[in-house]
Write a structure and sequence with these properties.
Layout: H1 3-25, H2 32-53, H3 64-73, H4 106-114, E1 117-121, E2 124-128, E3 134-138, E4 146-148, E5 159-164, E6 167-172, E7 178-182, E8 187-190, E9 194-197, E10 200-205, E11 217-221
Parallel strand pairs: 3-4
Antiparallel strand pairs: 1-2, 1-11, 3-5, 5-6, 6-9, 7-8, 7-10, 10-11
Helix pairs in contact: 1-2, 1-4, 2-3, 2-4
Amino acid sequence: MSGVEQARTLLLLARKDLKVAAILADVSDPEPEAVGFHLQQATEKALKAWLVCRKVVSPKVHDLSLLLSALEDVGEDVAPFSSMVELNPFAVQFRYALYEDEPFVWAELQDHVSQLMKLTAGDKEIIVNEELSSVTMGRSSSSQSHMMVPDNMASRLHAKVEFQRDHFVLVDQSTNGTYMMTDDGEMVMIYRGERALRGNGYIGLGQKPTVGNPLSIRFVSGVT
C-alpha cells in the first residue's frame, strides 16, 4: 500500500470513528468512556495520516502528545491542536477505566477533531482551521496563506477555502469558474458563488480536476 493510500485509509477510518462519537454523544445520557474512546481513535488516525503524508514512519503509540511532537519535529504547526491531548485517557489502554475527572466538553473536542482541512498542491500543504480560516488559490504567490497553481486558466486570486463557524466553504471569485470533484465522483462547477466543502476530493481552477494532475488541489477533511 502506498503512502497516499495508507493515509486515505486512515482518514476514512477516522471519519467512521467521528461519526460513531457524534451518534453516541447525541443521546440524552451519553457514556463518556464510549464517546471519548471514538474521539481519541479518530484523532489518533488523523494524526497518523498526517505523518504518513509527511513521509514519516508513524510511532506505534496511542499517546496523542507523541504524535503531535513527531509532526512538530518535521516543521508542522500543531499548536491549534494541542488540546487534543486531553483525549489521551480514552486511548485503548485506558478504555476500561472509569473517567472521574470534570465533565468533558464533547462538542468542543469534536470540533477540534473535525474542523480541520488540508489542501495540497504539488509540494505545498496548508491546513485550514479556526486560526487560519481563509486560504486563497490562484496564479499569484502573494502570501503563505495562498495555494499557487501555475496555470493560465487560473485567475491570480481565483478562489478560496474558508472556515465559516462550523464548516468549510469553497468560494469562486474567478473568470473561468471553479470545479470541485469528490472522491465519490460528484463533479460541480461554481461560478461567482460558494459551496460547502466536505469529505475528500479535488479542486480545479478554471478546468475540471483529475487525480494525479499537479494543477489540481487535493482537499482532505474530517467534516462529513
